Amino acid sequence: MKLFTDHLQQHFYTAFKTDDNHHCTAVVTQGLHEPTLVSSNKLLAEQLGIDPAQLTSPEMLQIMSGNQIPDASQPIALVYSGHQFGVWAGQLGDGRAITLGELPVKETLWDIQLKGAGTTPYSRFADGRAVLRSSIREYLCSEAMHGLGIATTRALCLINSQTPVYREEVEPGATVCRVAESHIRFGSFEHFHYRNQPESVKALADYVIERHFPDWMDRDDKYLLMLENCVLKTAKMIAQWQSVGFNHGVMNTDNMSILGDTIDYGPFGFLDNYNPDFICNHSDTNGRYSFKNQPSVGLWNLNALATSLTSLLESDHLIGALKQYEPEFLKQYRTIMASKIGLKEYQPEDEPLINQLLELMQTNNVDYTIFFRSLCAFSKHNQTVRDQFLDREGFDGWAEKYLQRLAQQSSTDAQRQEKMLATNPKYILRNYMAQAAIEQAYQGDYTEVQLLLEVLQSPFDEHPDAEKYAGLPPDWAEAISVSCSS
Ligand code: AMP
Ligand code: MG
Asked: Which end of the chain has fewer beta carbons closer than 10 Å to its terminal beta carbon, N or C?
């Protein structure tokens, strides 16, 4: 059988292999012992034109665990730098991610990358490995975000092994096959800018434009278009994060994609109760990356990206591009929030309606996802959602205004409800759900990983076999603590 990895191409490596500035380094993967397949992603395989049966083959297990390098592959690790928690951190790079090559699918090239397949020149003092626990979280969450319609890196398969990896305790080493149109980060540009290598900044920008925006290649304003695209895509991505209650947790500039995809799933978390001060990352003691700070951190990071493009663009162009962030974020956020409450169109008067609702939810500790899903069934005759609020009168006051607003629209309750059900997910990846799958996987049982994958890939649909995951989190969920250690 010809495997999809036999068709890998080497665009990034070829573009930069003769480059003295080392955009990437050729590496070899270091395999895991006694690998076993935890889960493979049929949906993504089909989107990439890969026969899903390949993913369960013994040859693929060897490749995806880093034990065998496909003939067509020249594995590489990319260099980048970044601002971590607001401080310049200098060189970072792919310390535990190795790109095997790019897979052509119609007009698009997809990076095929192994996370956890050993050390690279950028591993610093770390081991190049990823533990099963964090790999399950990345695998499930990237697919959950895709299911929610949010731009993200994807995950093709997940491998467990008998290789011991030392964290707070010994854990099994794992790999995730990450798939993305680009793994180039804001920090990739910062790296060359702060090393005073403008020609390398330009080479990287030209690469991004040639690969992702070939129509712009001959335009004088191509670098501005690339930056503007990143500003707009990042604004949209973060508006969507806010709308589903997603907290990334480590929005360092090395974890921000030049295409505006969600990337590098670490200590992320979804809101249970609506709480703007939520901090998913227990290492983030000051809450720099708290839920409510994400929109402004997005702009801070784009500022860092724009600064690293000063050799390519005049400052008034940089400022003009950055100025598009806030209006785009607000436009996207307001449109989504209006649709979450069943409004066909956002009007300026809707802002207090949405804000009052969020305030009520916060003071009444209302679950974010469950509330919006239950609101789909709200009508003049069915107001059961009010039971979620201790302050029933407060809710009634809001509901009265809400019903008046709904009455201004022409649609029927049934039409509105149908749209709302496609906007408000029934399932999100709460920490306790990932934890349940992790604990089972540590016993060698991967059925919950597979179940969650399938449920989260279509989070707006009903899944009778996963009804237990549609309710409030159990009490023990509060004790789960996630930090950067993975
Ligand atoms: P992260 O916080 O996961 O985005 O990682 C920040 C930097 O640390 C990146 O350069 C990673 O490649 C690197 N890194 C994280 N964990 C490891 C590891 N176990 N081995 C090598 N490098 C790592
Ligand atoms: Mg990272």
From this structure: N
